[in-house]
Amino acid sequence: MARLDPFIDLIFKEGAEVLLLETGAPAAIVKGDKIRPAMARSLTTAQIAGA
Question: Do residues 3 and 51 make contact, with C-beta atoms less than 8 angstroms apart?
């Protein structure tokens, strides 16, 4: 869970509705119709499954 804690904090801080995790893309937060990257590097399937 520690890997997700910073993202959960960001969701609350930004008032976001969704944490979007897609293989080959950086983690992103979604607020309304806006998607904002929450990190710089792209995620792998293994990283997402491990989270």
Answer: yes
Domain coverage including residue 16:
5-50
Burial class (CB in 10 A: 0-12, 13-18, 19+), 8: exposed
Number of domains in the chain: 1
Long-range contacts of 36-42 (CB under 8 A, 24+ apart): 38/7, 38/10
Coarse DSSP helix, strand, coil percentages of the chain, rounded to the nearest 5 percent = 30, 25, 45
pTM: 0.83
Structure tokens at 22: 């897609």
Give residue-wise pLDDT tens across range 3-30: 889 999 999 999 999 999 999 999 999 9
